[in-house]
Design goal:
This protein is mostly beta strands and 186 residues long. It contains two helices and ten strands, in the order αββββαββββββ. The protein has one domain.
């Protein structure tokens, strides 16, 4: 019996060495290269546009302003053309911080007026952009962006905006509109 036990242990030990012990397992390997494909990006560009004459806001009865007084709200509509291509290309717009009235440092009326633009004042081909600034309107080819810029002559007291805003002219030379690319999903 001792012989059979010794033989069984020897056979089992040899099997362990062959399967995973000191021995090695050989297999073949090779590599291959798969040809990749191209990815092309789209593009977006903006063409300068124009602004309409200032008008009183609807809350002030609309129409062409004569001489403005504190409390008046004025609006102008500006249009630019955007062109672009891209599967999920969307656009929105914002008023650039460089949009100010002239001579703000020396003209109290210009300093009192501050041009503003809210998301509800932005249209792309007549469609209002979503209020979420990360969303926009999908375009393909070219589209017209229309923004309504508001300038409020704040109603204050004798010091702010002050009597020094009387009998002055403020000029909003250029309205700088930043057209912002957004990602739209189908």
């Amino acid at each position: 019996m001792k012989r059979l036990t010794k033989a069984a242990f020897a056979t089992g030990g040899a099997a362990v060495l062959l399967v995973g012990g000191v021995g090695t397992v050989a297999y073949w390997t090779d590599t291959a290269t798969a040809t990749g494909t191209d990815i092309t990006s789209g593009q977006m560009s903006v063409t300068d546009g124009t602004c309409s004459d200032w008008e009183f806001d609807a809350s002030d009865g609309g129409g062409t302003p004569g001489e403005i007084v504190p409390g008046d709200v004025l609006v102008t509509t500006c249009e630019v053309t955007v062109s672009g291509s891209g599967t999920h290309l969307g656009v929105t717009a914002e008023l650039d911080g460089a949009t100010t009235f002239d001579d703000v440092a020396t003209n109290p009326l210009a300093a009192a007026l501050e041009p503003t633009l809210t998301a509800s004042d932005i249209m792309v081909d007549g469609v209002a952009v979503p209020t979420d600034p990360t969303q926009g309107i999908a375009i393909s080819g070219s589209a017209t962006i229309t923004v309504t810029v508001t300038a409020e002559f704040p109603y204050g007291d004798a010091t702010d905006p002050g009597n020094d805003t009387q009998d002055l002219t403020a000029i909003l030379d250029s309205v700088v509109i930043n057209v912002v690319q957004t990602h739209t999903t189908p």
